[in-house]
Specification:
By secondary structure, the protein is of the alpha/beta class. It has 2 domains: 147 residues, Aspartate Aminotransferase, domain 1, CATH 3.90.1150; 246 residues, 3-Layer(aba) Sandwich (Aspartate Aminotransferase, domain 2). The protein contains 15 helices and 17 strands. Helix 5 packs parallel to helix 12 and helix 13 packs parallel to helix 15. The protein is globular, with a radius of gyration of 22 Å. It starts with a helix and ends with a helix. The structure holds pyridoxal-5'-phosphate (PLP). Pyridoxal-5'-phosphate binds next to helix 6.
Length: 412
């Protein structure tokens, strides 16, 4: 029946009827638009329109759509072997891990398949670390209230968002929360939160879903200091802000701090699902055979694509270019803000993790941008997230700026 429909009508008609005939679960509020293909920073809709894509699969498409180098890596691997499992040696994974460790704080890499899996595994590593030291009572994790670490049962309770945990009880114990308010300019209240049973502090270096809130460098430094002092671990969730998005390989490099554990995902795969936990030797030692596992973790296809992503990102001047162009983008956005102070409250972010905070609910504004062929996505606190590919061109940024300005002008 469905096959009949799809062969008879084009996807555009299908999408209109989606509400009535969709076999997909209803857990997303999908926009009524579908795409035939993408190329670089653009998506082409089934109705023949070209959209400038600054959603980027939610900070996933580091190198845009249909990047030839990534296509080559994927198809080359696809002809060799798709999947082997972790019962055998993993040369593609080894190669990627070397690239990551050579260019970061990390000594060891453990692969999973998504961001939530990476944050959960990070929690496991922190707890197992203290278990291996004979201190299994140290198992609580301090997180920021209304942060975002993914949608699994533990991750939603780590995030501490009432909305996300509602209806998914019983409550997963082991998490304590502090308010982001306490982050400015330092951490007046965090010392009191750290108890004898605290194992780690886990925060996003830049809070993505929470409204593109950058944790000040001073705060990160202070966090490192207090973690050293209290002998607990620092987990920095770089699932969204890592892998070049802020103009450095990792966002915490801006503050020059060295975390103990870092979950990554989104951008490293450039569109192919992958997650990983990066660790120092000190903590990685506790992850002995059998302590964690993932059937798909380190899958050769994911490894090959991620290797190709990093080949591009780690090229000389790539991050420099991200910094240069993103600073231009932010500067010009601030000019638009100054021109429309009644609409735009604040321009937030670092690198190409950009937030435009409005004075009011952003939904209609996002819709207007879309009607003008610019795709963006929401975040908390009335924020519109702008997430171009890291290799976006200046003329594409100018097109986005022109569109945002136009919508501001016409906005009632
Ligand atoms: C997206 C995100 C996650 C969850 O990633 P999934 O791949 O959706 O499970 C976790 N942490 C942060 C900071 C994220 O932005």
């Amino acid at each position: 029946m469905v096959a009949f429909y799809l062969s008879q009508y084009d996807l555009y008609v299908y999408k209109i009827n989606t509400k009535f005939m969709s076999s997909l679960a209803n857990n997303y509020n999908r926009r009524k638009i579908s795409f035939k293909y993408g190329k670089g920073s653009f998506l082409y809709s089934t109705s023949g329109k070209r959209y400038l894509d600054m959603v980027g699969g939610i900070a996933v498409l580091s190198l845009g759509h249909a990047n030839p180098y990534l296509i080559k890596a994927l198809t080359k691997q696809a002809k060799k072997v798709w999947h082997i499992s972790n019962a055998f040696l993993a040369p593609e994974g080894e190669k990627l891990a070397k690239k990551i460790t050579r260019n970061s704080f990390a000594d060891k890499v453990m692969y999973v398949n998504s961001g939530a899996e990476a944050t959960e595994a990070s929690i496991k590593v922190a707890r197992r670390y203290f278990f291996s030291k004979g201190k299994s009572y140290k198992n609580r994790i301090i997180c920021i209230k209304n942060s975002f670490h993914g949608r699994t049962i533990a991750a939603i309770h780590a995030s501490g968002s009432k909305k996300m945990v509602e209806g998914f009880g019983p409550k997963v114990p082991g998490f304590d929360h502090i308010d982001f308010k306490n982050f400015k300019p330092r951490f007046p209240n965090i010392r009191k939160k750290i108890k004898k049973n605290t194992a780690a502090i886990m925060i996003e270096t830049v809070m993505g879903e929470g409204g593109v809130k950058v944790v000040p460098n001073k705060c990160l430094k202070y966090l490192r200091k207090i973690c050293n002092e209290k002998k607990i671990l620092l987990i920095l969730d770089e699932v969204q802000c890592g892998i070049g998005r802020t103009g450095k390989f990792f966002a915490f490099e801006h503050a020059n701090v060295r975390p103990d554990i870092v979950p990554i995902a989104k951008g490293i795969g450039g569109g192919f699902p992958i997650g990983a936990v990066l660790m120092t030797n000190k903590v990685a030692k506790c992850m002995t055979p059998g302590t964690h596992g993932s059937t798909f973790g380190g899958n050769p296809l994911a490894m090959s694509v991620s290797n190709a992503v990093l080949d591009q990102l780690l090229k000389k001047n790539f991050f420099k270019n991200v910094t240069k162009l993103s600073q231009y983008f932010l500067k010009e956005l601030n000019k638009i803000k100054d021109e429309f102070p009644k609409i735009i409250k604040e321009i937030r972010g670092k690198g190409f993790l950009i937030g435009i905070q409005l004075h009011f609910d952003q939904s209609n504004f996002i819709k207007s941008l879309e009607q003008n062929y610019l795709l963006t996505i929401r975040a908390s606190e009335n924020v519109i997230r702008v997430l171009p590919p890291l290799n976006v061109k200046k003329i594409e940024i100018d097109l986005a700026l022109k569109t945002i300005k136009k919508v501001c002008k016409e906005y009632k």
